[in-house]
Specification:
single chain, alpha/beta, seven-stranded parallel β-sheet, two-stranded antiparallel sheet, 9 strands, 14% strand
Length: 298
């Protein structure tokens, strides 16, 4: 796996939230032998025992279940341990979600994560952006966010403070990722405030370009202005393009992200991770990397 990434021309790789425990010895061997370096890990990495699929939200920092939060703590500590072993610099973190009540959605469209986002994307794709149906759903989403955000935010913040203290002991950074689903926290408009009371040296903002563009396509943010507002805390990027309105993980240049506008905010010290669809060909990946480098530089 890592040799294939290296042969695509990358010196560094991110270990994501789909790494099974059985892969760890081979990864360690590859790092120790100098075949590749590791820039970042995405929590939880490696996966908890018995979990064999990508599961970044299997235990949520924001959960009202204390046992779940303790599992989130335990497996984040394992991620920190692994990050130290492979000399990574930063761990990408999902902060949690709001626990919307199923009764709110009765007769509407269920209570699964992403339901608001997916329904709105469907309406945009049907050309119904700005319709009464679209505006009503946006209003419902915002009302639900305001009603349910406070307690999960507080629980997530408290756990992140504990985790940040441990990360600092190992000279690791945490990257709090902007999220795609409207049910997830922190809200884009509150990210700066959420980060303000967490230690700046350790806790950074991690910007997923695809998530940011999807939020712009839905009318919730201005992508470039959002990144600019958090530039003083920016730690790095997940880089992929978005085919309008929500087909993400495309190669840069194959969607509607204005990478040139974002380019002025990109600094040499920022970590840049390409996060593209595994179904892409080698040539498509390399073309996307070349396109971005022509805009952002090496």
């Amino acid at each position: 796996m890592l040799r294939e990434i290296r042969d695509l021309g990358f010196d560094y790789a991110e270990l994501s939230h789909g790494i099974r425990v059985s892969l760890v010895p081979g990864i360690v061997d590859a790092v120790d032998s100098g075949e590749i370096k590791i820039s970042t890990l995405h929590n939880f990495c490696p996966l908890p025992m018995g979990v064999n699929h990508a599961a970044p939200n299997i235990y949520e920092f924001s959960s009202s279940d204390q046992r779940e939060r303790e599992y989130a703590w335990k497996h984040t500590m394992k991620t920190i341990e692994f990050a130290v072993r492979v000399n990574a610099k930063l761990i990408v973190i999902h902060s949690g979600s709001m626990e919307f009540k199923p009764s709110f959605f009765a007769g509407l469209f269920g209570a699964k994560r992403m339901e608001f986002t997916d329904k709105l994307l469907d309406l945009v794709e049907e050309g119904k952006s700005g319709s009464d149906e679209f505006d009503q759903l946006v209003a419902q989403a915002v009302a639900c966010q305001e009603k349910h955000k406070e307690e999960p935010l507080a629980r997530s913040f408290d756990l992140l403070k504990r985790i940040a203290a441990e990360a600092a002991e190992h000279d690791l950074m945490l990257g709090i990722e902007n999220r795609e689903a409207l049910e997830e926290i922190p809200l884009d408009s509150e990210m700066s405030m959420f980060l303000a009371d967490l230690p700046e040296k350790t806790v950074r903002y991690w910007h997923d370009c695809g998530h940011g563009q999807i939020k712009e396509n839905l009318g919730f943010i201005n992508h470039t202005m959002h990144v600019q507002s958090l530039s003083d805390r920016l730690g790095g990027f997940h880089i992929h393009d978005v085919g309008f309105p929500g087909k993400d993980h495309q190669p840069p240049g194959k969607g509607n992200i204005d990478f040139e506008a974002l380019g002025d905010l990109v600094k040499p010290e920022h970590i840049k991770v390409f996060e593209m669809n595994p179904a892409l060909t080698k040539e498509e990946v390399q073309e996307g990397v070349k396109h971005l480098k022509s805009i952002w530089g090496e």
